[in-house]
Design goal:
alpha+beta, Uridine Diphospho-n-acetylenolpyruvylglucosamine Reductase, domain 2, Uridine Diphospho-n-acetylenolpyruvylglucosamine Reductase, domain 3, Enolase-like, domain 1, five-stranded antiparallel beta sheet, 10 helices, 26% strand
């Protein structure tokens, strides 16, 4: 299939992209930003999205900050055009190694080589790995629009089914992860490698010595947007081990109300949640004395 007709514009810098988005909207167009295109173009090909104009950020790859990966003072900063593959192959400290490990779940190599971190977050797919990681690691999305730059915490970013807090006339310039988590893991289940996950689960453990003091549990595929599960997080504290992880998984299953849809049943999503939360807890606990 092919997309509906649209006009194509290339932005020379961030200010130019914002100006294009603003002017196109004022002229009655429905513009969208495109970077890697790995999320938007398939939706356009199936006519699930029909923007009348595209603003291409490709030329901004020559701006060093847009493709930079940097760690400083407990924060990891990714430029908006950093690709999944760049993170997959980056040498990150143990505090952020979960990001590189998780990239194996993102599509196939060509998708990882073109798709961008910021693009995935703005797309807002409830099972997208970056969306779960954003909640898990307290990401802050920095967006620039006509009124200047603003920071959007991950907890305020996701508004529902493919809906985020990034305004149509804004361009994401960087993503900052502010919660170092050396004991963290994400796992998921899809029917075929590279397919969208049916359910995915991410866990970060707060460890003191050999004890777990708490942490975070984030789920995708059980609601219109990725969600933290406080009930499961409350069960994390205690001695690490299979009994602990089973209790966390049971609490997660009891807390969710997943949908029945054309993909699968709510009951199957609950079964996957129990298995995936348990597996993520075990993986995250690796290396605890």
């Amino acid at each position: 299939m092919k997309p509906a007709a649209f006009t194509y514009h290339r932005a020379h810098d961030v200010a130019d992209a914002v100006a294009l988005l603003t002017d196109l909207a004022a002229a009655g167009e429905d513009p969208k930003v495109i970077a890697g295109g790995q999320s938007l173009m398939p939706m356009m090909n199936f006519r699930l999205a029909r923007p009348t104009a595209l603003v291409d950020l490709g030329p901004l790859r020559r701006v060093p900050s847009m493709t930079a990966i940097s760690e400083r003072d407990g924060t990891l900063t990714l430029g908006a055009l950093v690709t999944h593959h760049a993170v997959e192959t980056a040498t990150l400290s143990p505090d952020w190694a979960v990001l590189s490990r998780t990239m194996r779940w993102v599509g196939h190599r060509p998708i990882r080589s073109r798709g961008t971190v910021a693009g995935s977050l703005v797309h807002g797919d409830a099972t997208a790995e970056w969306c779960l990681l954003a909640l898990l690691l307290d990401a802050v999305v920095v967006a620039e629009g006509p009124a200047g730059r603003r920071e959007i915490p991950a907890g305020e970013l996701f508004h529902g089914f493919y809906a985020t807090a990034v305004d149509p006339d804004e361009v994401v310039v960087e993503v900052r992860f502010t919660r170092p988590s050396p004991h963290a893991a994400l796992t998921e289940f899809a029917r075929r490698h590279g397919d969208f996950a049916i359910v995915d689960a991410a866990v970060a453990l707060d460890v003191e010595g050999s004890a777990v003091r708490g942490g975070r549990v984030v789920l995708g595929g059980v609601a219109p947007a990725p969600v933290r599960v406080p009930e499961a997080e409350a069960a994390l504290a205690g001695e690490a081990g299979d009994d602990r992880w089973a209790a966390v998984a049971d609490a997660a299953v009891a807390a969710i109300d997943p949908p029945d849809d054309g993909g699968t049943t709510a009951a199957y999503r609950r079964r996957l949640t129990r298995t995936l939360v348990t597996d993520a807890c075990r993986e995250a606990a690796g290396g605890i004395p």
